[in-house]
Design goal:
alpha+beta; two-stranded antiparallel ribbon; Arc Repressor Mutant, subunit A
Length: 187
C-alpha cells in the first residue's frame, strides 16, 4: 500500500513537499528534538550569529572587526562568537602583534563553510523579495564573473521544485536504525 500523500495547505497554491510513509499523517507525529532545522536554529537562529557568519565569509577574523562591522556590543559579539566556536562553525586561532599580548582570531571550519549555501540562499531571497533593485551585492564566480545562485538540485543534477520534493524517514547512513519522529500518542 502506498502511503505517499501530498500534505497541501489551502494557502500553498497546491505546492508542498510530499510526506511519505508514517510521515503522511502529519497529525500522528511531531518533529520533537530531532528536527534538523530546529537544531540548526539553536546555533544560528539569531540575527547577530548570522551576521557574524556573513562577516567570516567576507574574510573578517578579528574580534573588534566582527563587533564593529556587525554593529553589536562587545558583550554580544563575545557571546555569539563563543557559541559559534562551541558549535564548531568557527575555530579560535592564536595570533600576536609585535609588542602585544596573544589574541585570537576566528576562522571558519569545514562545518562553518558548509553552511554557506544556506546563508547565500537567505541573501538571494532577501535580494528578490526585500529590494526593488535586486539587492546591494551580486554574487559572481571568480574566474568567469558569471552570476551565482543557490538552487535545489538532485544528485543527478536536476533542478527540483517544492512540489517535486518527497520527505521520508532516513533509514541509511548515520541515521540507520533511527526512530521516526515522535508519535503524538507517545509524547
Amino acid at each position: 500500500m502506498d502511503l505517499t500523500i501530498a500534505a497541501k495547505s489551502q494557502y500553498s497554491g497546491g505546492m508542498a513537499m510530499k510526506l511519505e510513509g508514517p510521515l503522511a499523517d502529519r497529525s500522528a507525529w511531531e518533529t520533537g528534538e530531532r528536527c534538523s532545522i530546529s537544531r540548526a536554529m539553536r546555533i544560528v537562529g539569531t540575527r547577530s550569529a548570522m551576521l557574524l557568519l556573513r562577516e567570516a565569509y567576507y574574510g573578517t577574523t578579528r574580534f573588534d572587526d566582527f563587533a564593529q562591522r556587525v554593529g553589536i556590543t562587545e558583550a554580544v559579539a563575545s557571546a555569539r562568537l563563543k557559541e559559534l566556536v562551541e558549535a564548531g562553525l568557527l575555530a579560535k586561532s592564536p595570533y600576536r602583534e609585535p609588542g602585544q599580548r596573544t589574541r585570537y582570531e576566528y576562522v571558519l571550519t569545514d562545518m562553518g563553510r558548509d553552511l554557506l549555501p544556506a546563508v547565500l540562499a537567505l541573501m538571494q531571497w532577501g535580494d528578490k523579495y526585500l529590494h526593488d533593485d535586486g539587492g546591494p551585492l551580486q554574487l559572481v564566480e571568480d574566474t568567469t564573473s558569471a552570476p551565482v545562485r543557490v538552487q535545489i538540485r538532485s544528485e543527478d543534477g536536476n533542478e527540483v521544485g517544492l512540489d517535486d520534493l518527497r520527505v521520508r524517514i532516513n533509514r541509511s547512513g548515520k541515521q540507520a536504525g533511527a526512530e521516526p519522529p515522535v508519535s503524538r500518542a507517545e509524547s
